[in-house]
Amino acid sequence: MSRCRSSSRESASASGDGRPASFGITSKVIVAAVLAFFPILTNTVLGVKSVDAGHRDVMTSLNASRLAVLRRLELPSSLPYILTGMEVSVVLAIIGAVVGEYLGGNSGLGYLLISRMNAFETDGLFAVMIHMTILGFVFYFGVGVLRRLLIPWHQSARLDRVH
């Protein structure tokens, strides 16, 4: 009976030193990527569907190829939607990575957050939370800068949006 317990304990430990097994970086990256993928996909589909029918008719009358329609009409018209999906995805990817570390990691911000909470280190807990908040803001505003670079003509990229 004790032999069975020790073998199950050894198989539960990834490193063999008594620490709990972790899922590894690959599973955390997959969780973050899946969470980030779907907002971008749905907004891209919405952006392609929202292209003005009159603009499509013009491209058809000019005998534009499917690639030309995609490159000259659908992609530029969809970029505001794609970038909005990226803004949502950046936040969800960070949440997914932290939750993945929280559930099955032995390193990273999620693990650090839980270890500080379990040790009742309030100052360390808030330091990790502030760090995660700053990280989220940096990535979110990075997408905003990308928006201003890629679609400066669009209303969402202008800083003077208030009328």
Structural class, please? mainly alpha
Q: Spell the H/E element sequence.
A: HHHHHH
Q: Strand portion, in percent?
A: under 5%
Query: What spatial form do the alpha-carbon principal axes imply?
Result: elongated
Task: Give the tally of β-strands.
Answer: 0
Major sheet summary line: none
Question: What is the percent of helical residues?
Answer: over 70%
Determine the mean pLDDT.
Answer: 82
> How many helical stretches?
6
Distance between the termini: 76 Å
Question: Rg to the nearest angstrom?
Answer: 23 Å
Low-confidence stretches: 1-15
Features of this protein?
mainly alpha; 163 residues; 6 helices; single chain; 0% strand; disordered N terminus
Structure commentary:
The chain is mostly helical and 163 residues long. It has a domain at 24-43 and 78-157. Helix content is 75%, strand content 0%. The protein has helices at 2-12, 25-49, 53-61, 66-104, 109-118, 122-150. Mean pLDDT is 82; it is low at 1-15.
What's the quick description here?
By secondary structure, the protein is mainly alpha-helical. Helix content is 75%, strand content 0%. The protein has helices spanning 2-12, 25-49, 53-61, 66-104, 109-118, 122-150.
Write the layout of secondary structure elements.
Elements: H1 2-12, H2 25-49, H3 53-61, H4 66-104, H5 109-118, H6 122-150
